[in-house]
Amino acid sequence: MSIPVRYRSQLQDVCAHQLVITIDPDYCLLLYPLPEWEVVEQRLVCLSSTNRKARSLKRLLLGHAEECHPDSHGRLLLPMPLREFAGLDRRVVLVGQGNKFEIWDEALWYRQRDEWIRVQDGDDPQSDVNTLAF
After folding, report:
1. Where are the domains positioned within the chain?
2. With CB atoms 3.0 to 4.6 Å apart as the test, which of 50, 64, 84, 117 could cross-link to 23 if both were Cys?
3. pTM of the model
4. Short-list 27, 8, 110, 133, CA closest to 69
5. Among candidates 92, 88, 99, which has minimal Cα distance to 43?
6. What per-residue string of b and e applies to 99-113 under the rule 16 or more CB within 10 Å gives b?
7. What is the per-residue pLDDT across 49-102, written as a single tens digit (0 to 9) for each?
């Protein structure tokens, strides 16, 4: 997987290309600049060890976290266990999420995107998103 050129200089400035990659329960990978990951990691460590959901989240995100560094061409070698988890083959999608990127299998990304659009069209009255102005 290759990081687009437009992000490479920003990543150099923010974290000297020190990145952390881990899994997400939605079957994608999360790619954080190291300083952003350290904030997430600290928040995860502070979660309760007696709460089953918190323990599971910590195990998933912290237990699968690996440092990675792009080569001089912006390419990242994704660890095989993480690639397998996310079902990554040849075609991937890199999605910017503010403080991190998501890495998706292209086909799964488009299926998920279409599902999220359907959910939005349903206007779930329980959702806080419905109150956001875009």
Report:
1. 5-105
2. 64
3. 0.83
4. 8
5. 99
6. ebbbbbbeebbeeee
7. 999 999 999 999 999 999 998 888 888 999 999 999 999 988 999 999 989 999
